[in-house]
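Weekly structure sync - notes
Attendees: PM, LS, DV (DV joined late)
Agenda: review two folding runs queued last week.

Item 1: First target. Sequence and structure tokens pasted below for the record.
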Amino acid sequence: MSRPAGREPRRLTRWWRQRSLRSRLTVIAATAIALSVFVAFQVASELLGWELRDAAENQLRADSRVLATNAERAGLAQVQLPPYPGSGRLVRVILPDGSTRTPAGQPALPPVSEHAGRVAQGASADLMESNDSEEGYLVYTLRAGDGAVQVAQLADDSPINQFGFGMLLIGLLCVVGGALVGRAVARTGLAPIDRLTAAAVRVAQTRDLDADIPDEGGGEIRRLIQSINDMLAALRDSRRAQRLLAEDAAHELKTPLTSLRLNAELLIRLDRRGTLDSALPAESRTRLLNDLGAQVAELGTLVAELTDLARGDVSDENTEVLDLADVVAAAATRARSRAPDIEVALDVTSAWVSGRPAALERAVLNLIDNAGKWSPADQPVQVRLCAEDASVVLEVDDAGPGIDAADVPRVFDRFYRADSARALPGSGLGLSIVQRVVDAHGGRATVARSARGGALLRVDLPAAAPPAPTSQPTAGEDTAAS
């Protein structure tokens, strides 16, 4: 069975890809030198051949002129032709009747060609031609008297052959030397890569992200090392953030879990003794169960916020152009359903942004919830939305006591809660999530004191062009189309 035509190239490609970079560079260097030597040999051979042929033709012309001069003086039939010395040029005299004269002992030349006969008849002055016989003569015919003289030389390829053999030897030496030089250059050039690989393996084995790779080399190597060091720094920051998140989460979970455990142990102990009804009056039991429910709800909220914060991204939902006024209205509705006693006053206008609806709604809801904790019962939480130049501005303020100046720099930190907020429900993650959502949308979140004396939380987001309205066909168009 014959193999598919494309199998061998694929096998060769697979073999090539399996070679090391050092081996590839060595092969490429040797191949490049071999090709260069081959091209140089071809060009030099052609040039040498042209030069030798030109020199031979000039010598034949000179010898022919001397012989023609002697023939014209003595006559073609009487001109003296010295015996052939055994090597060198060959001569021949073409008489008017077409016969020829040659020196004694000279090897036979090829028959007079038709073109050479025309020169002897006076059709042209001279002719340079190459004989195609095995001997390969180069023959020059020159008009002399009523006939012509010919001087020939056996084509000698030995200089070109010797030159080719020498070039072959030089080429082989160059290829071997090129391979060695390519190997050395590859080893030297890839030494930083080898050290970089060893350092990366060491980091992977020891999990030591604090060990930066030494910066060495230049150009691409330096940029590669800097990129890996930046990646290690990002991994260090990520690990540090994870550790801090775990520590903060453990600290925040400890209090509600401890309270839940104590209350549950109390109920279990009383129930085992059979004194639950007598030891806990109905009012105390109701209060205890309410506390348990509140603690469970607080734990659920804390776990949900921790899960959202630990994801590292805002959401998997796609970004779309949306009217933030719709998002604010939805968040206010959810806030009212969660805390019916909180009044939310909306003053919003249409403002378009590019973002993720669910993430933005979560951020707005956290802002309203935070303001609702501080706003007095008779004072609403005010939510304002408008467009200013190239930004969309969202402001949420309350009439509470405001934020102390010492707490302002840490308002958006994870788990941070001011001393005045310790007694209020919450995890300290709401505003941190707001900050992360706003940063992910290219915006900015700030805090200030509102005109009512409370806190004013402001969010600035880049504005987006509203989508083009879709044209609706008129009744007449519908009728016409039908």
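Item 2: Second target, run right after the first with the same settings.
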Amino acid sequence: MSELTKVEVPPSDRGFFGHPRGPATLFFLEMWERFSYYGMSAILLYYLYDQTSDGGLGLDKPTSSALVSIYGALVFMSGILGGWLADRLLGMRRAVLLGGVLIMCGHLALAVPGRLYALLASMLLIVVGTGLLKPNVSSLVGELYSATDNRRDAGFSLFYMGINLGAFIAPYLVGTLGQRVDYHLGFGLAAVGMAAGLVVYARGRARLGGSGDVPTNPLRVGERRRVTMRAAVGVAVLAAVVVALGAAGSLTVQTLINAVTVLAVLVPVSYLIMMLRSPHTDAVERSRLIAYIPLFIGAVCYWVVNEQSGSVLAQFADTRTDLEVFGLVVPSSWFQSLNPIATLVLAPTFAWLWIRLGDRQPATPRKFATGLLLGGASFVLMAGPGLLHGVDALASPWWLVASYFVVICGSMCLSPVGLSATTKLAPRAFLAQMMSLWFLASAAAGGINAQLVQLYRPETEVGYFAGVGAAVMATGAVMHLIAPWVQRRMGGVR
């Protein structure tokens, strides 16, 4: 938005824990959106592979895990489209509203028994809706503070708390209803959560002032025609490919999985090549981009482990874990809350640690290396139950608790550090696109996982956890070795 249309909230507005009242609207919207998404995610895998007599789709476990992985990959990739639509066509506020409506409709598609077609329709709606809502609601938070408002970072911390609060609550409510009563009722509750967020947003939009009302770089008349034509051609080509695959009998779930895997890897590679070759990237920026490549690869390797919480670790919780905790038999979906719990506990701890260390804290490549070592160790740890007691005996739930704690320690060394490094190493002409590139690391990991998780089964459990974990730890060791080279290429950025 231009400076002429942007309305900044005055510092005197302190109606929400000392912050402007606008962030309260976005805090609760994001909390309910994450409630709906993580609630759905908590039971999705089980719905896919449970027998039809128990209300599931009856798919095999490897295919179910792969579908969960490509779901995550597509959600991260859709942020590129959502950001573009907001910047050029809709404006952030309309994009957020439309995204929330699409997400709600996606959950409703799963709430109505409709077999595999309902699942695919739901995936499309939630992927597009999340791409519209997620990047733009975060940008709206920033729009509510002036560049000199010292409450800005704390405001994002409050917003981050909303994300994790929704993710923490969802498995207990949606998971219990879905697993103990009916999956479709669980998905329906996720839709109710998104509807609650939309109500909060609609009632509180006046608090946002003029922020996000219009596109920041709207399409001109001539551009609209070109974009419309290109979109029409793209849809026509996609439709032709689908028809051809259907006629050849190749339009299968595995075809979808393979296509997303290829796309998830090619998109970030294309982004990097485009920025490296751009005439708008000078020599120093090009050096920094080269330094960013090993960091990006390291992030992909870390997210390969972290993003398996909704697939392989969820399956382990369901089929291999003793679900009696302190005398209470809990639904396996409850273990999905361990990630946000660990994040809520560890995020302020690591923030304090970096401030405490000051100039003595490790450089960015060293932090990445430590994050990779911890991420890999969390998977090596999960090989323990099978090694000690065999894969036929139920494992203690504390193995999962320990694994989540270790992997989130790794996340604290890599995820926020990666966000910061992305902003510092970005060429000036590609500031926003570099942030999109960072999130594509998770998309690439999801695409890789779509192939990898199909290898997990009881007879391969020990080798799977030990092998994947050791490979990620090896990446961390290499990162430690090349850290001085990466640091030199970063052009003075620490």
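Discussion on item 2: The first strand starts at residue 324 and ends at 325.
Action: LS to circulate a short write-up before next sync.
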